[in-house]
Amino acid sequence: MLRIAVPNKGSLSDAAGDMLRESGYRTRRDAKELVVTDEANGVELFYLRPRDIAVYVGSGTVDCGITGRDLLLDSGSAASEVMALGFGQSTFRYAGRPGSVAALADIAGRRVATSYQGLVEKHLAEHGVQAEVVRLDGAVETAITLGVADVIADVVETGGTLRSQGLEVFGDPILRSEAVLIRREGSDQVAAIEVLRRRLLGVVTARHYVMLDYDVPATLVDEACAITPGLESPTVSSLQNPEWKAVRAMVPRSGTNQVMDRLYEMGARAILVTDIAACRL
Ligand SMILES: Nc1ncnc2c1ncn2[C@@H]1O[C@H](COP(=O)(O)OP(=O)(O)OP(=O)(O)O)[C@@H](O)[C@H]1O
Ligand SMILES: O=P(O)(O)OC[C@H]1O[C@H](OP(=O)(O)OP(=O)(O)O)[C@H](O)[C@@H]1O
Ligand SMILES: [Mg+2]
């Protein structure tokens, strides 16, 4: 059985469950379940705190897991990143009161509050900045108001929490994070992890692309295929009317409407977009 650690709470939990379900695995039915055995797929899911997942995977007690890249790096665990999963994106940044700090060098000699002590100490050391790191469990943005720190280093997604506390980011992001699949080198489940990786990649890719179908005058097929080249090559089928062809191709979701506009302008009609649930490429 392949042992997979899955976030049981927090920002990554629901999206990780959705992705595993879309990848064909049986997931928990209620939030109290801590272990789920999926005999049909030969996997066991262990629902653990995202911060602990890197530790379990690094120690080899589970084979792989889903957690945040920031948590993996903070833990100093021996686990390594297999692939990014395209959700839970955030940056990890320094912030302070406007006017009090403007650059990394200004942190020297001051107190930095964070829940990510390992990550921050490593970053400060790499940049030759000496500062005191104050380790907190959460609600780090309040630390400056309450006087336990001069600067914070925390996860920033929308920036709303920082703004609500009158704080501003400064310096370059320490890290860009998202949910990642992690594993430990030396696990004896190499083949099973590869199946999991391929399934997850199928869902990540399916989310990035849509399927586009359209009809186009036969004389314009080459021009149309240049706009929608697909991954290998688009499918071109005959229609009952020999003056028209049907074309089918995967296109990146982000540019779908621009592509549809260009196809329509060049004479394509009946342009249809459908979601792809999963794929193997
Ligand atoms: N808006 C966000 N807030 C917090 N973490 C986020 C956010 N977006 C993505 N993440 C990622 O979620 C992980 C944090 O997991 P954690 O279990 O601490 O979740 P949490 O949302 O902070 O939950 P909790 O309510 O337990 O504090 C990190 O990898 C972090 O980068
Ligand atoms: O940029 P934003 O969209 O505002 O999101 C970032 C905030 O969300 C997280 O806090 P969370 O709700 O997890 O609380 P915590 O600090 O107690 O973990 C994170 O620690 C930031 O505070
Ligand atoms: Mg949190």
What does it look like?
Helices cover 28% and strands 33% of the residues. The strands form 3 sheets. A 6-stranded mixed beta sheet has the order 2-3-1-4-11-5, sandwiched between helices. A hairpin with a 5-residue loop joins strand 13 and strand 14. Helix 3 packs across helix 4. It is globular. It binds adenosine-5'-triphosphate (ATP), 1-O-pyrophosphono-5-O-phosphono-alpha-D-ribofuranose and magnesium ion. The site of 1-O-pyrophosphono-5-O-phosphono-alpha-D-ribofuranose has 12 residues, from strand 9 and helix 5.
Brief account:
Residues 49-200 form the ATP phosphoribosyltransferase catalytic domain. The chain is an alpha/beta fold and 281 residues long.
What is the total domain count?
3
Second rung of CATH, namely the architecture of the largest domain: 3-Layer(aba) Sandwich
Residues in β-strands, percent: 25-35%
Name the strands of the widest sheet in spatial order: 2-3-1-4-11-5
Order of helices and strands: EHEEHEHEEEHEEHEEHEHEEHE
Roughly how many Å apart are the termini?
26 Å
Structural class: alpha/beta
CATH superfamily of the largest domain: Periplasmic binding protein-like II
Low-confidence stretches: none
CATH topology of the largest domain: D-Maltodextrin-Binding Protein, domain 2
**Bound molecule types:** adenosine-5'-triphosphate, 1-O-pyrophosphono-5-O-phosphono-alpha-D-ribofuranose, magnesium ion
User: With helices defined by DSSP (H or I, 4 residues minimum), what is the helix count?
Assistant: 8
**Number of DSSP strand runs:** 15
Helix content: 25-40%
Average pLDDT reading: 96
CATH class descriptor of the largest domain: Alpha Beta
